[in-house]
Design brief:
The structure is a homodimer. Chain A is mostly helical. The first copy, chain A, folds into 2 domains: about 45 residues, Orthogonal Bundle (Arc Repressor Mutant, subunit A); about 120 residues, Tetracycline Repressor, domain 2. In chain A, about 75% of the residues lie in helices and about 0% in strands. Chain A has 10 helices and no strands. Chain A starts with 7 loop residues before the first helix and ends with a helix.
Chain lengths: ~180, ~180
């Protein structure tokens, strides 16, 4: 996300994440976020529809990128290989580990945000399964390949933000090897 | 679940599920559920702490059964095979397709119930991963095996309640074959 942020926007994101972790999402107001970022509330609303959007605005773009990459994968790629091409495309997106860590900490600290995150991930899996069916995979094959790719994405991401791997790309490949090793 | 229900309890469950589907979970009161089941509100509260419990009371028992089965699996079973033994143990639990269908329809119709269901499934996966680590699996292996077993459970269950397979056990084995076929 980092590469698209600059100035006021970036300060707003960092101020919001700090406050969500320190005080809790529910207890934080837009006025407080704006004050900490040194801008007006009006500036906040120029960038974000509400305080939840600071956390979830990237989800739809991410899903679009993943689904498009699957559609563009070689026609003879297996369902799982096409799904993995989609997962690898998230490397474009996940370049700012500090942001990703803070975002994850803010979400983990709040049950309703955790539920929302799970719903977004479920939507991403549904989008991947639909993209695989559009390539000709049968329903069950598409569904289990989407789940397995989701597992690679989730655990690769977790390894990266926890620092088990310095590099997001390497973390994804470690998770992929583990999934391929299931017996 | 059916085999443990009888009389007032079973009527309460069916009345609640009918009302959640017809009117929506949020719009249904305990008084209405009790009236439709032909019992008092007091009887409702003898069986259930609240109206959400009608849907989720089985989750903790299910997790306990799955985790215990994994702990009891042969020491030389792979992490995935142990997790699949846990999934197969759910056959004890899921014997009443009509109940399972109604429950799924009630949950699908309400965003907050869907979020809650996803949270329970995430908790089940965490429980499975912990049980696999307790058997000596490393963290990543345990996590991806738990995800893959969750995929078998979810899609086996869906095939059964949708009627793609008449038999829950056969549906699980079809989903397992699809997961093992991932390349």
């Amino acid at each position: 996300m980092g590469r698209w942020q600059s100035g006021a926007r970036e300060r707003l994101v960092m101020a919001a994440l700090d406050l969500y972790v320190e005080r809790g999402f529910d207890e934080t107001t837009v006025a407080e976020i704006a004050a900490r970022a040194g801008v007006t509330e009006r500036t906040f609303f120029r960038y974000f529809a509400d305080k939840r959007e600071v956390l979830f605005e990237g989800s739809a773009l991410l899903e679009q990128l993943v689904v498009q990459t699957i559609a563009d994968a070689p026609v003879d790629a297996s369902a799982f290989d096409a799904a993995i091409a989609g997962v690898r495309a998230t490397r474009e997106f996940l370049v700012d580990r500090d942001f990703s860590r803070r975002r994850a900490a803010a979400i983990d600290a709040n049950a309703s945000l955790r539920e929302r995150e799970l719903l977004k991930l479920a939507s991403l899996r549904d989008g991947v399964a639909a993209a695989l069916r559009a390539r000709g995979a049968d329903e069950l094959t598409a569904a289990v390949a989407a789940d397995a790719a989701g597992s690679v994405f989730h655990h690769g991401f977790q390894r990266w933000i926890r620092g088990d791997s310095e590099d997001y790309s390497a973390a994804l490949e470690q998770a992929l090897a583990a999934v391929r090793g299931i017996r």
